[in-house]
Specification:
Length: 473
């Protein structure tokens, strides 16, 4: 696993951005056009580039899309308006208008900016195109948290929320990132000068952590410690969207290592941490008081089993490694940064409108545990009858087909229109998805470079996510 490959692969993995998306208009431009008929609008609002697509005959529904996390320095090639271009094409053909902002700043942690820029775009749309009869907030990955927050904080302006591969709990995400990098540093790079928070040399710390993973994956002892590290966030050993889940012990851990290196180190490690801290006013993550023995015990049965098998195969003492983690110096959070993340990142689950979520079971970056966390939030603060959660049995991040995404959106619109959810059994959904043409069955493997894409059969399944390891609440 080479450094350059890891950076590019995870940048694509997080963004899920097809190269075919058209670029936005030049900075500072103002978009104006007739409101009727098929149009593309592109321009900027307060410095944030946007894109709007209107259909030939608008049905009055606007889908407002919030994109995922772009790593700092990533060259954004365009502005997507849905997770997959085929989904956008189908929605336009069926009368839906689509809109998305790139967000001020373009890369890094942009929840605060996204909340402002999406409402500004909604205002622009009402003035220049027309007042929607209803607006659906659609969010991908980090944009899932933005979509939830948009509806919670502007309940009169949204009729529903749909998310794809969402990470709705940024506080939990950044705590998990800290846990994984802490374990890599402690167990695989002991004694090295690596900053996990307040990084003095973000690129250097990133490279040192990645090299530790690359060394570890070559030995049974290193692989055992990688399996333990992965268990702290239930990181799946399934890195491909186009291949079956691996069953071989070594291969499962190799694929966990790919997640750890590309997602938690290159994608969201010290470089991303420095960006987050610059916006939050400090470090919002901590592991003071965290018992990693308890974290392992809380992990899924699958992950505990993998850890014990790997340690037996390597002839290592699991207790000794857990003792080493327990003895390592801990990291405290900065209270102001914790407050920032709560204000700009963590939805309460109040469900003022119906919500549907769609997630791949093998997602090791935005793990499915977060969907369970969101459902718990809804039980505490919202109305569970307004929430439905769908899963597809597939590896990788955002590895859903257009057919699966369209069915999710159709179910949400049905709930908005009738007050009732349609039948959402996997058997019924898979039959409906199979009725779409082959173009709508394409799935992109965001972990590959260059990107691989191919048709995959519909894969809706019944699934209960593991308990979240380090939720924000």
């Amino acid at each position: 696993m080479r450094r350059g490959l890891g950076i590019v692969a995870f940048a694509v993995l997080l963004v899920g951005l097809p190269a075919s998306w058209p670029a936005a208009g030049a900075a500072g431009s103002t978009a104006t056009a007739a409101a009727e008929g098929r149009h593309t609008y592109a321009g900027t609002i307060d410095g944030a580039a946007f894109r709007v697509e209107t259909p030939e005959h608008w049905n009055g529904t606007l889908v407002l899309y919030s994109h995922g996390y772009y790593p700092p320095g990533f060259q954004v090639p365009g502005i997507p308006v849905t997770n997959r271009p085929e989904t956008a094409a189908w929605l336009l053909e069926h009368g839906y208008a689509l809109a998305a902002s790139e967000f001020t700043g373009r890369t890094g942690y942009l929840v605060e900016q996204g909340l402002h820029d999406q409402i500004a775009l909604l205002d622009w749309f009402a003035e220049h195109v027309g007042q929607p009869q209803r607006t659906v907030a659609l969010g991908q990955s980090q944009g899932g948290a933005i979509a939830h927050l948009l509806a919670e904080r502007n309940p009169g302006r949204f009729a529903g929320v749909a998310t794809v591969c969402a990470a709705p709990d940024p506080g939990g995400t950044w705590n998990a990132i800290l846990d994984i990098n802490f374990a890599v540093k402690t167990l695989l790079a002991p004694g090295q000068d690596i900053d996990l928070v307040h990084p003095r040399d973000p690129a250097g710390s990133t490279l040192a952590l990645a090299q530790a993973v690359q060394r570890a994956v070559t030995t049974p002892q290193g692989r055992a410690r990688l399996a333990l590290t992965a268990a702290f966030n239930n990181v799946q050993g399934w890195y491909s969207a186009l291949q079956p889940r691996p069953v071989d012990l070594t291969e499962q851990i190799r694929q966990q290592a790919a997640w750890i290196q590309n997602a938690y180190i290159f994608g969201l490690g010290p470089v991303a941490r420095a960006d987050l801290e610059s916006k939050a006013g400090g470090n919002p993550s901590f592991n003071v008081g965290i018992d990693y023995r308890r974290q392992l015990a809380r992990s899924s049965h699958q992950h505990k089993q993998l850890v014990h098998q790997a340690y037996r195969a390597a002839g290592l003492d699991l207790g000794a490694d857990l003792d080493q983690l327990a003895a390592a110096p801990r990291i405290s959070a900065d209270p102001a940064a914790v407050a920032y993340l709560r204000r700009f990142g963590i939805p309460r689950g109040t469900t003022p409108v119906p919500v549907i979520t769609l997630h791949s079971t093998g997602d090791g970056g935005a793990v499915t545990d977060q969907e369970r966390w969101f459902a718990q939030q809804v039980r505490r603060h919202g109305d569970p009858s307004r929430l439905r959660q769908l899963f597809v049995e597939r590896g990788q991040h955002c590895s859903t087909s257009a057919a699966e995404e369209i069915l999710s959106l159709q179910a949400l619109v049905h709930r908005i229109d009738t007050g009732r959810w349609p039948g959402l059994s996997p058997r019924r959904l898979n039959a409906a998805a199979a009725a779409f043409g082959p173009t709508y069955q394409l799935v992109t493997d965001l972990g590959s470079f260059p990107l691989n894409e191919g048709p995959m059969p519909p894969a809706f399944t019944r699934f209960t996510p593991p308990r979240p390891q380090r939720p924000s609440s």
